[in-house]
User: Which sequence fits this backbone?
């Protein structure tokens, strides 16, 4: 995500961040939701390792290692935005790492083309990482089937590397969806702003995001409750992300109406 202030539209637990470090004059912050996730996974890995009494430490720590690796990829994603912003002549001043990352930069004199080009910087990094890893690592033979889909294991070094590569491609595709506050919404907003007034373009993006987010929440929740498919981590993550997108869009749309920006 590549615009100042959008993190404020996320639900409270996801928007609260604490200082982490300063790198090249850019302030780095991390969400308490990410720290909570790391803590929960570490406790789960330790409990599983001691209670099971079998399997190597790598097997029990694999999920935590995967999340840590994706955290690094998320940081590189935001650095992609920061680099594109700097190349376009805008000084990035803050990166917030959460379930929906954010790179803030000075938008004075920014043109629509600047906005969508900078927004594409993060997904491009994930696309290159994912394609690079998967060009050398193939899916392991071991795995299991979920809802008719073969899911490779992540509890071996090769499987973990494959998951990191595949997850980077998924992050790139997901972030390019035109749903606020994802990068795709910034690309759509930048392009629409070149054809319509910015307030009208923003209103259209937010309405689209609300409708799509609500549709995904209803569809996934309905399938889970009616037994349409078995609940797993992927479905839960999809449900949470759709809810966060819808909630952020509703908050941003309400702020536009309060400020008298609605059309």
Assistant:
């Amino acid at each position: 995500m590549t615009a100042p202030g959008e993190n404020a539209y996320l639900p409270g637990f996801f928007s609260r961040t604490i200082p982490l470090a300063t790198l090249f004059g850019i302030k780095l912050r991390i969400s308490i939701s990410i720290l909570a996730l790391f803590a929960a996974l570490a406790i789960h890995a330790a409990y599983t390792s001691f209670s099971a009494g079998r399997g190597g430490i790598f097997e029990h720590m694999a999920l935590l290692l995967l999340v840590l690796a994706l955290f690094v990829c998320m940081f590189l994603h935001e650095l992609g935005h920061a680099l594109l912003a700097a190349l376009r002549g805008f000084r990035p001043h803050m990166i917030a790492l959460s379930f929906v990352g954010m790179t803030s930069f000075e938008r004075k004199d920014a043109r629509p083309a600047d906005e969508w080009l900078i927004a594409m910087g993060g997904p491009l990094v994930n696309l290159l990482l994912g394609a690079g890893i998967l060009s050398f690592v193939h899916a392991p033979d071991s795995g299991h089937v979920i809802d008719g889909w073969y899911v490779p294991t992540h509890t071996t070094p090769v499987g973990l590397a494959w998951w990191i590569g595949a997850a980077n491609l998924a992050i790139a595709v997901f972030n390019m969806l035109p749903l606020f506050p994802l990068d795709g919404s910034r690309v759509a907003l930048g392009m629409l702003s070149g054809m319509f007034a910015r307030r009208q373009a923003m209103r259209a993006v937010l309405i689209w995001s609300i409708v799509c987010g609500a549709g995904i929440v209803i569809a996934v929740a309905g399938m889970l409750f009616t037994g349409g498919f078995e609940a797993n981590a992927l479905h839960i993550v999809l449900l949470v992300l759709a809810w966060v997108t819808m909630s952020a869009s509703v908050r941003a749309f309400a702020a536009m109406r309060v400020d008298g920006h609605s059309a």
Notes: Residues 178-263 form one domain. Residues 1-6 have pLDDT under 50 and may be disordered.
